[in-house]
């Protein structure tokens, strides 16, 4: 799989007139080589050949994780000129510090260093079978952890206590643990899209927003569900139904050839028609994989076109300050036929 990824990258580089790309973003190095260490770069040539560079601390790990890739153990850049020859070297200009870029230009020549941003990120948007399997496992662990939460979430717990216990549920099913910090927001705190769990005590009648995800094999899940601790406020119950309708429409729209902006518009139209358009304060979703937030971004006017085997979230929301908020989120894989949600917990309102 990774050899094919490097070949695809080489083809992109050749089309851009770049002879080799110095890959410095750790997540991109991992995607191309399998190396998970914290100190490593790789050089990918336009023919798809690759070498991985790290230091002595990671020599054994790199040889094991990046089998089949040429390994260079060197803390300096003395290896680079001979590997690039007289060609043009692309750099990840969205990641590489400016002072390092200037040093490379002085060492190799200013006319030989060219910005080559986000070539790897563009390829990473489309997932191969290995990646889809890992994302599906992460989503399954997330769904199972949420099912377990329903057995113990109750009034009297604090948000922090509930988030801590949920973390344990995730780690019991996915040893790599959480893909990101859990958002667990109760009552009026649920009106904050990215609330950090705090000391508030869960009360009867609260809507509780739970946004979390497991990580498996480096790949992320991301799911949001609402739990009602008894009957919620009537307006919030109505808001829940609106968000659920919008989310179902967005999931159904996530098909090849559809723009990311069009998926956002499908969700937004439902919420606008219900009179809550100004309370939907973020985009509809995002890609995910090795990172929890990747391209494409599903937002108003976004021009990116969805293709088969992209994985995206669909997560519209409505937020009423001082009252509460609702968000429903699934991970969806875009397929040639119908889109497939990978997070499997019901989107019906759960009342405990």
Describe this structure in words.
There is one protein chain. The protein folds into 2 domains: 2-124, Creatine Amidinohydrolase, Chain A, domain 1; 129-351, Creatine Amidinohydrolase (Alpha-Beta Complex), CATH 3.90.230. With 352 residues, it is an alpha+beta fold. The two termini are 45 Å apart. The relative contact order is 0.11. Helix 7 (129-149) packs across helix 8 (159-173) and helix 9 (234-253) runs antiparallel to helix 10. The radius of gyration is 23 Å and the shape is elongated. The protein has helices spanning 2-15, 26-33, 59-65, 80-84, 98-108, 119-124, 129-149, 159-173, 234-253, 260-273, and strands at residues 20-23, 41-45, 50-54, 70-73, 89-91, 113-115, 183-186, 207-212, 215-216, 219-220, 223-228, 285-287, 294-298, 311-314, 317-320, 324-327, 330-333, 340-341, 350-351.
> N-to-C SSE series?
HEHEEHEHEHEHHHEEEEEHHEEEEEEEE
Main sheet makeup: 6 strands, mixed
Residue stretches low in confidence (pLDDT < 50, at least 5 long) are none
Widest sheet: strand ordering = 4-3-2-1-5-6
The coarse silhouette is elongated
- Tally of structural domains: 2
Distance between the termini: 45 Å
Radius of gyration: 23 Å
User: DSSP strand (E) fraction?
Assistant: 15-25%
């Amino acid at each position: 799989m990774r050899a094919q990824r490097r070949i695809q990258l080489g083809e992109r580089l050749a089309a851009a007139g770049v002879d080799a790309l110095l890959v410095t973003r750790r997540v991109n190095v991992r995607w191309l080589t399998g190396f998970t260490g914290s100190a490593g770069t790789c050089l990918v040539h336009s023919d798809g050949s690759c070498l991985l560079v790290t230091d002595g601390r990671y020599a054994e790990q790199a040889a094991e994780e990046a089998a089949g890739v040429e390994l260079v153990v060197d803390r300096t850049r003395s290896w680079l000129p001979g590997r690039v020859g007289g060609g043009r070297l692309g750099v990840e200009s969205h990641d590489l510090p400016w002072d390092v870029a200037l040093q490379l230009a002085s060492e190799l020549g200013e006319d030989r260093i060219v910005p080559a941003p986000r070539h790897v990120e563009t390829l990473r948007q489309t997932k191969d079978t290995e990646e889809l399997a890992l994302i599906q496992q992460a989503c399954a662990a997330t769904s199972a952890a949420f099912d377990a939460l329903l057995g113990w979430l109750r009034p009297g717990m604090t948000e922090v206590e509930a988030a801590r216990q949920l973390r344990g549920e995730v780690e019991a099913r996915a040893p790599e643990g959480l893909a990101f910090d859990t958002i667990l927001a109760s009552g009026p705190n649920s009106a904050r899209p990215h609330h950090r769990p705090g000391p508030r005590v869960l009360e009867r009648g609260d809507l509780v927003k739970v946004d979390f995800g497991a990580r498996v094999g480096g790949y992320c899940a991301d799911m949001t569900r609402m739990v009602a601790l008894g009957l919620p406020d009537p307006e919030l119950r109505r808001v829940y139904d609106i968000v659920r309708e919008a989310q179902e429409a967005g999931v159904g729209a996530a098909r090849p050839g559809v723009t990311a902006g069009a998926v956002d518009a499908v969700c937004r139209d439902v919420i606008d028609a219900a009179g809550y358009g100004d309370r939907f304060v973020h985009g509809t979703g995002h890609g995910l994989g090795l990172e929890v937030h990747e391209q494409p971004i599903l937002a108003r006017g976004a021009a990116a076109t969805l293709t088969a085997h992209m994985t995206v979230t669909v997560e519209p929301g409505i937020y009423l300050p001082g009252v509460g908020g609702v968000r429903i989120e699934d991970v969806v894989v875009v397929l040639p036929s119908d889109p497939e949600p990978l997070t499997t917990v019901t989107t019906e309102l759960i009342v405990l």
